[in-house]
């Protein structure tokens, strides 16, 4: 397409775009859905036609880019208006056509009707028969036009059951009982493990303490036979695995191999030592000394403020540590380190040092 043809096409499309832009800007909440939809389609068509234009100067390219951006915004605005218009359309009141469901027939109409009528109350149906009576299909019509009386009469009501005449006696659960006779020391506990009947070899179950030397475990439910064994705080009874059958009771005294109590081991208490570093230096009014290093609570990046104790700057710690290095700074200024090599101290040391800056 030649430059002159491209410019002519752009001029024509631009006029259509401006007219359509003015139309969309005049839209409001009363604009119809059809009108908004037509505007959206026209905007999309013009936007697509922009792509076919070539060989235009820089000014038209800029105008075309601006128009594309405006079309994008106009499409968004139309989308919002379209949603509002659809909501307004849905909320419009529906005109009353004057039709209504037929009223339920009166007792007189029912009695005079040739169609057999069944007493639809639940009590009457229960007392007369377990069968469900339905009105003939020709008398019912569509479900929309059926009266409340007719709809009730078609509901299925199950055969009557006299609840008072039923004697429901739940089965008595079968209980098996294991009684352990053992006088456990104070603080000791008895457990039971097994296979099946609610028992597990991995997770011990605590026995119920009845009195000082009697422990009980009850098993309710159906099972043929189960194995079990008793523990005393993690120590297995000396005998092999025992068995109990459904509905049976077992009572016995287990034996445990308890190791002799060993003499208490005296607790070794390490003495607490204090590491103390004292610095002799007259810092002058308003100045302070700080310590940096690899010792307890120290860092080479930020210093710990030392305390003035009896005319000396002091750092103290009771934290156990290895030998460490340190250095003193005036006012924790990176440019005011103490002169000389790093100092060395160890756990429990007491040092008294003079520094220069």
Question: How does this structure look, described?
Answer:
The chain has 357 residues and is an alpha+beta fold. It has 4 domains: 3-90, Methane Monooxygenase Hydroxylase, Chain G, domain 1; 113-153, no CATH class; 175-252, Sandwich (Immunoglobulin-like); 275-354, Immunoglobulin-like, CATH 2.60.40.10. Helix content is 27%, strand content 23%. The chain is built from 7 helices and 17 strands. Strands 2, 3, 6, 7 and 8 form a 5-stranded antiparallel sheet that branches. Strands 4-5-1-9 form a 4-stranded mixed sheet, with no helix packed on it. Helix 1 (3-25) packs antiparallel against helix 2 (33-50), helix 1 (3-25) packs parallel to helix 3 (58-90) and helix 2 runs antiparallel to helix 3 (58-90).
Using only C-alpha atoms, the radius of gyration works out to: 49 Å
- Give the strand tally: 17
Mean pLDDT: 76
- N-to-C span: 84 Å
- Proportion of residues in extended strands: 15-25%
**Total domains, how many?**
4
Estimated helix fraction: 25-40%
Write the layout of secondary structure elements.
Layout: H1 3-25, H2 33-50, H3 58-90, H4 107-112, H5 122-128, H6 137-140, H7 148-153, E1 175-181, E2 190-195, E3 205-206, E4 208-211, E5 214-220, E6 225-232, E7 235-236, E8 242-245, E9 249-252, E10 275-280, E11 289-293, E12 304-305, E13 307-309, E14 312-317, E15 324-330, E16 343-345, E17 350-354
């Amino acid at each position: 397409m030649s430059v002159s043809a491209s410019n002519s096409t752009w001029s024509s499309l631009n006029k259509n775009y401006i007219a359509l832009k003015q139309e969309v800007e005049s839209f409001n909440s009363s604009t119809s859905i059809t009108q908004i939809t037509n505007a959206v389609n026209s905007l999309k068509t013009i936007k697509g036609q922009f792509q076919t234009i070539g060989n235009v100067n820089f000014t038209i390219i800029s105008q075309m880019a601006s128009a594309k951006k405006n079309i994008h915004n106009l499409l968004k605005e139309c989308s919002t208006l379209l949603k509002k218009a659809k909501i307004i359309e849905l909320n419009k009141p529906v005109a009353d056509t004057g039709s209504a469901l037929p009223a339920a027939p009166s007792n007189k109409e029912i009695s005079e009707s040739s169609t057999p009528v069944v007493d639809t109350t639940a009590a009457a149906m229960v007392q007369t028969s377990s069968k469900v009576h339905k009105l003939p299909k020709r008398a019912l019509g569509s479900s929309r036009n059926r009266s409340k009386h007719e709809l009730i009469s078609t509901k299925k009501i199950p055969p009557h059951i006299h609840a008072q005449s039923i004697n429901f006696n739940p089965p008595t659960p079968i209980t098996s009982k294991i009684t352990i006779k053992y006088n456990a020391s104070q603080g000791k506990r008895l457990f039971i493990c097994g296979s099946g009947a609610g028992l597990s070899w991995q997770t011990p179950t605590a026995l119920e303490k009845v009195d000082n030397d009697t422990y009980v475990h009850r098993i309710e439910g159906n099972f043929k036979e189960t194995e079990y064994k008793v523990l005393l705080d993690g120590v297995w009874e000396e005998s092999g695995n025992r068995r109990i059958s459904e509905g049976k009771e077992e009572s016995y005294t287990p034996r445990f191999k308890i190791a002799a109590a060993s003499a208490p081991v005296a607790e070794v208490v390490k003495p607490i030592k204090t590491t103390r570093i004292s610095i002799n230096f007259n810092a002058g009014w308003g100045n302070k000394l700080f310590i940096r290093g690899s010792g307890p609570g120290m860092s080479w990046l930020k210093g710990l403020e030392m305390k003035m104790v009896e005319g000396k700057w002091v750092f103290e710690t009771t934290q156990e540590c290895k030998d460490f290095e340190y250095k003193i700074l005036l006012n924790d200024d990176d440019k005011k380190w103490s002169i000389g090599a790093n100092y060395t101290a160890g756990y429990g040391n007491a040092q008294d040092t003079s520094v220069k800056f």
